[in-house]
Please model this.
Amino acid sequence: MTDATSQIREIARNLLSEGRVQTVLGYEEAPLGLGLRPAFVREPSGTGRLVFDARPTLGLARYLPGEIASALARAEDGAAGSGGTTRGATVAVVAKGCDVRAVLRLVADRRIRRENVILIGVPCSGSIDEERFPRLIAKCSGCDARLPEGCDFTIETMAEPRPADRHRPLKVEDLEGMTADERYTFWQRQFARCIRCFACRSVCPACGCRECALESRSPVWLERDVNPSTQSMFHFMRLMHTAGRCVDCGECERVCPVGIPLTLLTRKLMSDIRTLFGVEHPETPGDSEPLARFGLSDPEEFI
Amino acid sequence: MPWNPLIVAFCCNWCSYAGADLAGTSRLAYPATVRIIRVPCSGRVNPQYIVRAFQRGADAVLVAGCHPGDCHYSTGNYFTRRRFLLARTFLEYLGVEPERFQVRWISGSEGPKFQETIKEITQAVRALGPNRKLRDES
Model:
């Protein structure tokens, strides 16, 4: 039993030297002590760079479609040159529970194939932002931090004592308890900070359209001028487009540079899907999405 | 000039639009507060249309389609039901009064129901007053 870093290094070294994968996607130390950054390791000799700990990391799922495509292309070139061929999995990825769900989302959306990925699951008791204060980062509040399921490898770690949850001033229920006007004021204040950097969209595993409606110029759904109305349209669209396909990874909130509490929106949709449509685990990607099917006895008191 | 509500109604071609037509040919009077947009099916209505209507000054939005089981395309309105149940709770969560967004099943033979629906929504919106939420003032 060794720590997560050495186990990940060993698995990565074996996978690369046996030629089972083209790339291991993991994390390495960023320069200047800036935490962990994504690492693309393609040689066994490079596996010593890999690191993993409780510092917040970027979920790596969104790198997979591109990385797998180029790995497959490389494998094909190699096969043409040497007569050897690389089959099956082409990219291994280090994934926490939320990241595993994100990868399965891409698989369910047919953006990648499960057999092209080797999942190295890391049990996680929440990311901690030592920089600011030794507490869980917001997106990890309320996560039951379970062992990732359905992985090809699972890292064994000592059960870490779970750090204190970050104090979140508000939960979905608190907002539900407000009046319509209070809620409106609250959300307008949040959306007013939005700089439309689209990071929430770029990091989201459920956002996969080749042409994004947010950037459509015919028709124009999202006006270029920034005002309370267009800001609301932006967030409404993004959330309705990912509703029922969101895996509750919380990356949108983590990357938001202005700290909009986006999981208060994603989790609201998720709890409504759970109660209204009887979907037990809307965060787990399945073959059929809640909004892509229907029940003959769906509630219609509102109609 | 007294203030009159503005209702944008997305009516399915096969049922509710015919229902509205029947209300007209039957000479059923209802408030002139509604602007009807004909859609091929209530399932064609994108949630963005609702916000866009509010942006452009609607005080209420109605999505009207065939009764469950009567959809011209068999199942379109079942998707509508699920989608707008969620969109409705979500709009409410963003702070829009739920009365301002309505979904109704109105068949081609229900002229009186169309009349009643418009009366009812007009009354509810009159009580709420003009909508400023989500409106594009620029």
Notes: The mean pLDDT of chain A is 90. The first helix of chain A runs from residue 4 to 17.
